[in-house]
């Protein structure tokens, strides 16, 4: 009984921290957008008819603008020719350009280069579904999730339409650089394999469509965090009856069922292809969703099962490291050894939302009555973490098969870069230091992203160095 009460208290604290942080991010975006909208329309107020209350009206306008630009397929930026664009792919609960108004998931890093794209993918959808969306975001057309997959998971086969892709010339001669944060890195790897397998009807794709992949705190081998949040360690698919993820599930279902247009335009979990709207399923459909009879959480077609160690092994067993693609990985950690025990490396240096999570992940022990996720698994290997992912998971693909890799202390040590090898370095940071809030990272922010962009522009090429716009000869 005491253990049950302790678990409930832990759940309450964890849920409260996440809600406060989520509200902080959302309200920050809303406040900024309302301020911008009010300033832009201030000179016209006397000539306009009565409008909705300022806060609601401004937010609706901003959300509608995002919808027109990104969701309706009217690409605000269509790139053509050389040099290859850099595509920033967000992680779980993330968002791309056009969501949350003017807030940037990558904290404005996209402004460091003239040819950067920031797609908006499902924030909680499966890695498979997000990989399919990413392809059509770039190439154009209607998102096709695949007939077999759609039938197996019980959702519509086709999704949003991009009349003009953001990089319609994408092919072997016009490849792209990808930078994926957290689960975004695994999304790119799955997309890469799909390209190699020619998995997109009507398109003659190949693995050479991707020039480089940079993984930033990438979920390459899963995380023990998923078990703390509610995934069952026995199978990596099911959830405990009472856990943080169950609260998340209920919230997402109600959010999608209510289907408030301006709100979903502002932020969307990405489950539109499951058609959970009240307009489609009615009140009886809501009951079925809440009881777990239908929906993505029943089929397992959402992000958390893909982030368990078992789910990652299943995905990794199909993925290759390709000989003509450059790979670089930044693994983050916020832990250290104290008298032989792994503990958080600091208190003030860890985001308040992540400190408890760092401590929990240091203490993770695989249940003795549950089968090990893979042969050779050891708890101590998974202690170092950044509050969301284990450091061992972020360096390079290693389970079930270890891919070619090389540890890097200084970036200059790996020049010239060789394709087909995962170069990786370990940096002192928590999982969200380099996203959303640029001020937190300080000078580290510019050092990191400048290094990534410079590598893409000057060190990752197949034939000859690309011509960089606005670069003058010395």
From TrEMBL:
Main location: secreted
Sequence ranges assigned to domain Lipase-like C-terminal in this UniProt record: 85-196
InterPro entries in UniProt: AB_hydrolase_fold (IPR029058), Lip-like_C (IPR056304)
Compartments it resides in: Secreted
One term of GO molecular function: hydrolase activity
Presence of the UniProt keyword Protease in the record: no
GO biological process: lipid metabolic process
Gene Ontology, cellular component aspect: extracellular region
Keywords linked to the UniProt accession: Hydrolase, Lipid metabolism, Secreted, Signal
Protein name as catalogued: Lipase-like C-terminal domain-containing protein
Organism: Panicum virgatum
């Amino acid at each position: 009984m005491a253990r049950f009460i302790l678990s409930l208290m832990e759940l309450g604290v964890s849920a409260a921290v996440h809600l406060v942080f989520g509200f902080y991010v959302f309200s920050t975006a809303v406040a900024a957008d309302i301020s911008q909208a009010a300033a832009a329309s201030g000179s016209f107020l006397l000539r306009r008819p009565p409008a909705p209350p300022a806060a609601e009206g401004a937010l609706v306008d901003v959300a509608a603008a995002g919808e027109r630009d990104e969701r309706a397929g009217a690409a605000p930026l269509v790139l053509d020719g050389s040099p290859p664009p850099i595509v920033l792919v967000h992680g779980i609960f993330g968002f791309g350009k056009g969501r949350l108004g003017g807030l940037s998931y990558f904290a404005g890093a996209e402004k460091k280069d003239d040819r950067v794209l920031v797609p908006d993918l499902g924030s909680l959808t499966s890695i498979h579904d997000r990989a399919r969306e990413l392809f059509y975001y770039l190439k154009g057309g209607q998102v096709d999730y695949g007939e077999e997959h759609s039938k197996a998971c019980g959702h519509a086969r086709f999704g949003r339409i991009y009349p003009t892709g953001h990089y319609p010339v994408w092919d072997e001669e016009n490849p792209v650089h990808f930078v994926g944060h957290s689960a975004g890195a695994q999304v790119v790897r799955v997309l890469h394999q799909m390209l190699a397998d020619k998995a997109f009807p009507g398109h003659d794709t190949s693995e050479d469509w991707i020039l480089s992949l940079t993984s930033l705190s990438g979920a390459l081998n899963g995380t023990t965090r998923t078990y703390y949040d509610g995934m069952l360690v026995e199978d990596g698919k099911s959830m405990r009856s009472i856990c943080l993820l169950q609260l998340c599930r209920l919230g997402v279902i109600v959010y999608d069922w209510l289907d408030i247009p301006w709100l979903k335009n502002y932020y969307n979990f990405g489950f539109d292809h499951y058609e959970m709207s009240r307009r489609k399923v009615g009140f009886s459909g809501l009951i079925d969703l809440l009881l777990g009879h239908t929906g993505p959480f029943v089929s397992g077609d959402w992000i958390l099962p893909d982030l368990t160690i078992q789910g990652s092994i299943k995905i990794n067993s199909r993925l290759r490291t390709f000989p003509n693609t450059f790979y670089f990985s930044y693994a983050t950690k916020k832990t250290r050894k104290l008298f032989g025990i792994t503990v958080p490396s600091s208190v003030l240096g860890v985001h308040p939302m992540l400190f408890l999570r760092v401590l929990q992940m240091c203490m993770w022990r695989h249940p003795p009555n549950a089968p090990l996720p893979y042969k050779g698994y050891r708890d101590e290997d998974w202690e170092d973490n950044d509050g969301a992912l284990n450091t061992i998971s972020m360096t390079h693909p290693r389970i079930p098969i270890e891919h070619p890799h090389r540890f890097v202390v200084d970036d200059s040590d790996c020049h010239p870069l060789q394709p087909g090898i995962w170069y990786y370095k370990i940096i002192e940071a928590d999982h969200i230091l380099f996203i959303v809030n640029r001020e937190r990272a300080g000078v580290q922010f510019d050092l990191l992203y400048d290094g990534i962009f410079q590598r893409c522009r000057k060190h990752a090429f197949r034939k000859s160095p690309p011509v960089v716009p606005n670069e003058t000869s010395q």
